[in-house]
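Throughout our pipeline, every protein is held as a single compact record rather than as scattered files. Such a record has a labelled line for the sequence and another for the backbone structure tokens. This encoding replaces a full spatial description with a residue-level series of whole-number codes. For reference, a complete record is included directly beneath this paragraph.
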Amino acid sequence: MCMDSYDMSHLEHEALLLVVTSTFGNGDPPENGEVFARQLQAIKMTGETTPDIESVRHISATYLRISVDSSDVPNSGINDMDNINPIGPLSNIRFAVFGLGSSAYPNFCAFGRYLDTMLSELGGERILKVGSGDELCGQEQSFGDWASIAFEVACDVFCISDDLNLKEVMKSATLKPQIWSKDNVKLVPYYGNTIQDICKCLSKGPSRQAIEYKMMNRVPLQDGEIDGRTTVLVELEAINARQTSTFYMPGDHLGVYPENRRELVDDILAHYSDDYNVDQEYSIFVRVNQMDDKNNGTEAEKWIPNEKLAITSLREALTRYMDVTTPPTQQLLTLFAVNATNPSDKARLKQLATDSARYEEWKASCFPNLLEVLNEFRSLRLPPELILTQLPPIQSRFYSISSSPLMSSSARIDLTVAVVKYVTHSGAQHYGVCSNYLNEIKSGHSVYGFIRSAPNFRLPDDRTAPIIMVGPGSGIAPFRGFWQHRSKLIETKREDRNKLSKMTLFFGCRSPSMQLHAKEVQMMVNNGIISQSFIAYSRVSGHSKRYVQDCLKSQSQQIYHELIHERGHFFVCGDVSMAEDVCKTLKFILKDNGIDDPEIALLSLKVFDARYVTTAREMFEALCNHIKYATNKGNLRSAITIFPQRIGKREFRVWNLQLISYAGYENIETDGSGAQTPTPSSQIIGDPMNVEFTQLCERLGWKGKRTKWDVLPLVLSVPDEDPQVFTLPEELVLRVPISHPRCVYMSFHSLNTRQIPFKCFEELDIQWYALPAVSNMMFDVGGLEFPACPFSGWYMVTEIATRDLCDPQRYNILEEVAVRMGLDVRTNSSLWKDLAIVELNIAVLFSYQKANVTIVDHHTAAESFMKHLDNEQRLRGGCPADWVWVVPPISGSLTPVFHQEMLYYELKPSYEYQEPAWRTHEWHITPGAQLSRNSTNGTGTPRKLRFKEIARAVKFTSNLFGKALSKRIKATILYATETGKSELFAKRLAHIFLHAFNVS
């Protein structure tokens, strides 16, 4: 079943779910898989198995893309950890996923991996690691191997392998493919007057409704064919624009359904004898077995119209509907072998059909189309019934739209088309199907296609964000739409030219004569639409080769500044190898300008993805890694660690307010009767802010040394479990002892100047930790909540000296410092608080600098924030800020932020405060109580039964009552496809699983 036809209300009730899916473009879902992906994401967001459809619609395509890019699963086999996933909304499901794709693209099989990860995160049990089939090599073999293993594993998991002769079943299911028979197809001559609706025949689902366009014009973009290459501008116009949705945006694609070359079709038809009228239209019927409700539910044979193509002629089918240029698959070669009469041809075809290595070698060398196969195997006679029902349908070819709907209307579309011609390794001349079709079709003739949205390739909503466009050759196509769109916005006064950002173009070709849209680009530069244009020529006589990568390197400072400081957008369009080289160049530019991790490119923020964790121990290990990286021997580095998101009420939590903080102990006095009374807060040992949390740690079994500077343990919890306590290794916690730079202090609180010793700081034994790492806030992004998302940077001096050490609700040492300094603390008019707090800030700043630990003073921090505020105001029209927190706690009026009006409002993504975990946690066992030995596996962790064990127990119980598992387990197979190949593989998978499961 196709994913876009699946009823999601059935998902939580599935027993076995098998998924076969392709990946579109650079990691996107196929169109008929997008809604399914959004629905899974909505389940994850809400914890509900049937989320409101509005929540599905509001999940951004960008988030899906990020999820796809970051998804991964272990390459090893299934281990015990896969079987003890926390219970989730899809915990009833067992699943396996196979992805199809091309390793020529960087995000190989990304959507398949995304679905595999998502189903696991939602509680499903993965019975087999995600499989992948590479279009470039051995895809059919990979799928066959995976399908066989999936069938065996599924039989074992559901405890039905004992009821089957598995070897015989596998032999029957996988080694003997379903043989097509001419007797199951009937061609009935059609003499009706009904004109076939070509749009309806080509359309594939609601998202692929074909639109009829008229070829309006074709303009050569080069002076004739140069080096065997030619590029043309194709101008199309929708015929029924009012009845059909033709809306598009710059950056979108047009999927074009081509026609096969007339010469190729005629030569294929020449292989048929005069017995067939190749221009006669036929109604095509296929024989199927269906349940007959009128005959006690028994199977009955029925003839039904062919699903994909009901009425057509052989010529029309080969011209418009059938793919005759792609090498036949191994499964198709099996059918060909049956129809070859020469024993040598038959043997060779069988060998190619069964030997994957020979097949791949043959395909790579010849890349044979149907005509070349017929010429190679001269005895091969393919009946029309086979061609009309078994050849794969012709696939659309995608072209970046090279125009803006503002130039005329969305009914008009321009395409920049590079006409493809090449010679195979065997010496045969081949032609690109669609590019040559568009280059040869006459004006006024119809062209069929559909709009495919590309939401990740759009002009940015922020018109002030710089745009960098890299498009060698025909890769310039979408950028023509970009500059036309911007030009029209300015021309119609919808945008102010002075408020628009820079638009820079990097273009490459072999020589000046091959430059595309040269006059239009120059006009846009002259008009100020394009700020700068850089062109690289790679084949100019007497000059060294130069590529767009070289142009990028020459402008590295500009690119770095626009991307990082001005939050610019970087677009690349072209072939995969070029895009990879451009990506490497961009990484080099960012690294050369001090960005350690260009993959993140968020200044120096290091992101640790810990969404894979399932246990508190794994959380602890991830946090230790975070602390070690961020501390960096005092040269602090910003970092963030992201643990799994909240699903319903199930969440991962770090209970500490900060990853590193000091304990606070109440001094308990006992009177003569044994009653205990807490001492006043002034006599608390350590940090009063952490008294409640320290008591919790002690109830959980932790024991501190009861000093002022005891580092608290980490308290971590995972869904459905009580928290666990982990002591941080001492070597991970970098501490800074506080001392003062001067030994004497010149006191001016009286007319008599006198010296006061400054050893009081050493006598107070003050210290603080180097790394501030907030761990109690929640990260909210795109409607997803990450309650465990600790982040760290470095301290501003006033945070330690003023807020932590001097606040009356914290260590409250200000008066003690002032007394030891000899200041008069009896009256406020002596300004002893001001004098002491300044010196304490000096001491902290001096101590951190002396220890080579990163820290910033409040004046520098305030100036930096003002630059940030101005930048955000210029780029985004505002910046939320809380004046109370931004203004430093001392010398506030001396900093620029004090005089700045600020408006606090919420933006997403955001960090938000949340209730401490110990106040909201639902305890399974009272803190301090010991787990019963009988309820654990000996390690203190409640035992979790695996599904296989439960299934075996159920079967054993059934056998005791003399009843076997007679009802077949339901297996649901879903597919998502752009070309139809995933659908074909899904049907083959269904054929295998029908031997033991009830397949739907």
